[in-house]
Amino acid sequence: MNSFETDMIRALKSRGFLLGLGSMILVLCTAGYDSDAFRMCVPVVCTFPYTTAWLKESQNGFLKACLPRTTITAYILGKYVSCGIAGGLAEAGALFLVSLFQKNLKFMDCNPDLLFLSGCLWAMIAAVLAAWSNNRYLAYGGSFVLYYILIILHERYFPGLYCLYPYEWFHPTHEWVFQEQGIRLLLGMLILIFGFLYYGILRRCMKRG
């Protein structure tokens, strides 16, 4: 079993993933998809499963035991990709389960893959913040702060700049270039950018320590 497979299994079996999935199901059942509560949960719930995995291994001294069995690049990519997939699945999986059992027509306008990509991105941003700050609490709160800053910038100062409005990334109301494919391209590009940041931060930390 390679590094990525190990990380993926750990992420999906973690209490954080179950907590994230359960929290999002609860919000969807009580408040609904169109609620502010749901929108504000998007950058938070995705951070529960695996965003601080590297930080925990580094602080607990497990890093030296892991590295002899894999390469630095494979180790870092395993952590980053697993973090994103688990974060995205916690949200998109909750949406799928609730829409499946409730058969609520309001959910028919949703696109689970956009919610999945949004969850991936915010989970990965949280992982970058955790690695950069060496603080797990910044991981859980930092992505929410950035998310809220983007909302304020759009609503108060740049109402026409909808491409940077995080609600648009999973529930588009404007006409995007290339339609929803344009949103996927934007999110994919941001995921790659933060991936390079994550790789650079972890590689430097691992070589230094």
The number of distinct structural domains comes to 1
Q: Regions with pLDDT < 50 over 5+ consecutive residues? A: none
Count the E strands.
0
| SSE-based structural type | mainly alpha
Largest sheet: none
**Count, helices:** 9
Distance between the termini: 26 Å
From the spread of the alpha carbons, the general shape counts as: globular
Which percent range describes the beta-strand content?
under 5%
Mean of all residue-level pLDDT scores: 90
Radius of gyration: 17 Å
**Helix content range:** over 70%
Compressed to H and E, one letter per element, the order equals: HHHHHHHHH
Question: What's the helix and strand layout?
Answer:
Blueprint lengths: L2 H11 L1 H16 L5 H10 L7 H7 L3 H4 L5 H31 L9 H22 L2 H22 L22 H29 L1
Which terms would index this structure?
mainly alpha; 73% helix; single chain; 0% strand; 209 residues; globular
Description:
It contains nine helices and no strands. It is mainly alpha-helical and 209 residues long. The longest helix is centred in the middle third of the chain and has 31 residues, at 72-102. The model has no long low-confidence stretch (mean pLDDT 90).
